Amino acid sequence: LRSKEEIKSIVVSWFTNLVNSQDVGLVVIACNTASIAAYDVLPQLGKRFNVPIISMIEGFEDCITDNLKSIKNKSVGIMATKYSIESGVYQKIVKKYNPIRVVDIIGTNSERCVASGRYLDKSSESLIKKDFLNYNHNVKLDTILLGCTCTSHVSKKIQNIIGDDVVFLDPGEYVSNLAKQKLNIKKESLNG
Fold first, then answer.
1. Is residue 130 packed enough to be buried (19+ CB in 10 Å), middle (13-18) or exposed (0-12)?
2. What is the pLDDT of residue 37?
3. Dihedrals phi, psi of 158, to nearest 5 degrees
4. pLDDT digits 0-9 by tens, 53-101
5. DSSP code of 16?
């Protein structure tokens, strides 16, 4: 619920206080809101602090290009924070791949359930359901892009609300893969 400038200032402070004082080999901005708000300053921060940066935007793009069959000619919902939805960044990316429609779903209640740990409670489904009150249920969604890193924790509850035949795509997995590539970590070394 902060302004773009406030969020950007927070991200810059992460670099000033953490990256500057630690031996950091990679920065992952694992928050969609922060990734979007600070996207224009990330290249300068990377140069200034001599550290590679991966944001959720790169993960979002990789997720979509790897799952085109779930986007092209489909009804796609983007579930994210109010800031991420209102920025229009993710909608612009998705529309490049010819969906039938893009539906915005502000997932504030879902995000708060996860952040507070209440998503494990049985009663959380009624709170998560509120995020779907403004969504036109006459429009069947084929795919939901989880534009908030925490919503993967409630994807089963969302399926209970909107139906089992919706495909969920989680850009967070792609961010993790990008980080492994940047750090040159092989899958075998993670399992061993």
1. exposed
2. 94
3. -65, -40
4. 999 999 999 999 999 999 999 999 999 989 999 999 999 999 999 999 9
5. I
Does pLDDT of 21 surpass 90? no
Say what the pTM is: 0.87
* Inter-residue contact 98 to 166 (CB < 8 Å): no
Active site residue 63: no
Q: Collect contacts of 124-130 with beta carbons under 8 A, ≥24 apart.
A: 124/154, 124/157, 125/157, 125/160, 125/161, 128/154, 128/157, 128/158, 128/161, 129/161
pLDDT digits (tens, 9 = 90+) for 38-57: 999 999 999 999 999 999 99
**Which amino acid would we find at residue 96?**
K
Name the active-site residue from 31, 63, 113, 150: 31
Q: Spot the catalytic one: 63, 113, 148, 150.
A: 148
Known active-site residue 31: yes
Amino acid 187: pLDDT: 54
Helix (H, G, I), strand (E, B) or coil at 53: strand
